[in-house]
Design goal:
alpha+beta; 2 domains; three-stranded antiparallel beta sheet; 11 helices; 10 strands
């Protein structure tokens, strides 16, 4: 395990250029929103948001002026309907905006909206963020290549995302790793598969607080799934290790579980299983995946220095010179997917055949 594996410096927002906007429109990711991110910045006051035991969450609850409050609340309810019911306005009469929180750190500085259904007092959340091309590519690759579906919408410089329910990875490691050996094996297995998914599509910075763990009770024990919630570091950094969650010290507790319970051949088996599943998902969504890669390969997502470093690192890792011709991060992502899937399955990835 490495002692440190952090971003070289804070990543700048990558603009959403016209080819990506056309892709989003084609695949129903673009829509007209009733309010923009910049409008939410015009809040009047804010107070720190603390958790149930009084600790500062680093979020602030914001309050709008009397003249803006009704407009903002109605817009938030409509956006929630767009995300959850394809814009069916009949649900709006049962919804209430309970709270709007603002995160002052992070690249997209999101607003988190808490919605309550008055019929059953159930609550849900969604997010309003600055649009960032890296994050959009990350979300699309998650939707296409992982077992998880992702709902988000983009309008100009604003994007909205549904909330992903689960236990934050750092909290999970603190409170849920002391379990039966059977469940510990399942946790370690899922981390291996998650590690593989991140590396195949080059999603970086998966420290424990950037993913959640979903727990599903099963006939015997529980099933676990790790799911990324931060996509800002999609194929931006130059170091190969940045795309392997196993190298972040924050993930050491679950790494130690794997070392305790699994032999190397078992780890390899789970890696091959996940690659096989990714290959199947690519085939299922071949046309959309090809369209996304065509746009991503031509986009400017990082610096020449980082592109050069990652080409060198991955070329050495794969013992393959295919990366030498890559000029963009998108080209590196595509080449990495091709090589990782061909390496063990001797098959084409449907691109460039």
């Amino acid at each position: 395990m490495m002692k440190g594996n952090v971003p070289s410096k804070k990543k700048v927002l990558i603009p959403v250029r016209e080819p990506l906007r056309k892709y989003l429109s084609l695949h129903n990711r673009a829509t007209k929103l009733p309010i923009q991110y910049r409008d939410l910045l015009r809040y009047d006051t804010s107070i720190p948001l603390v958790d149930q035991v009084g600790h500062d969450t680093l979020w602030e609850t914001v309050f709008f002026s009397e003249s803006d409050r009704e407009y903002v609340n109605e817009a938030m309810k409509f956006i929630y309907a767009l995300l959850k019911t394809d814009g069916d306005v009949e649900v709006l009469q049962h919804l209430t905006v309970a709270r709007i929180d603002f995160c002052t750190f992070g690249n997209t500085k999101p607003f988190r909206i808490r919605i309550i259904n008055r019929l059953n007092d159930n609550y849900d959340h969604f997010y309003v963020k600055k649009a960032d091309a890296s994050r959009i590519y990350g979300l699309e690759l998650e939707d296409l290549l992982s077992p998880n579906r992702v709902m988000f919408l983009v309008d100009g410089d604003t994007m909205v995302e549904e909330h992903v329910a689960g236990i934050p990875g750092d909290d999970f490691m603190k409170h849920h790793l002391v379990d039966t050996p059977f469940n510990q094996i399942r946790i370690a297995k899922e981390f291996i598969k998650f590690n593989e998914r991140c590396f195949v599509r080059l999603l970086g910075d998966m420290r424990s607080y950037n993913y959640i763990v979903g727990i599903t009770p099963d006939i015997e024990g529980s099933q676990f799934r790790l799911r990324a919630i931060d996509f800002d570091q999609q194929s931006y950094e130059g170091r190969k290790s940045f795309y392997l969650p196993q190298y972040f010290k924050e993930n050491n507790p679950v790494i130690f579980l794997g070392m305790k319970h699994m032999r190397p051949e078992t780890v390899t088996q789970y890696q091959l299983e996940e690659r096989s599943l990714i290959a199947a998902r690519v085939k299922t969504s071949a046309e959309q995946f090809s369209g996304l890669m065509e746009v991503m390969v031509r986009d400017e997502l990082s610096t020449e220095e980082k592109i050069g470093q990652l080409k060198e690192d991955l070329g050495y890792h794969h013992k393959n010179r295919s990366f030498e011709k890559c000029k963009t991060m998108g080209a590196i992502v595509l080449t990495n997917i091709q090589l990782l899937l061909q390496k063990d399955f001797k098959q084409s990835i449907l691109i460039g055949e």
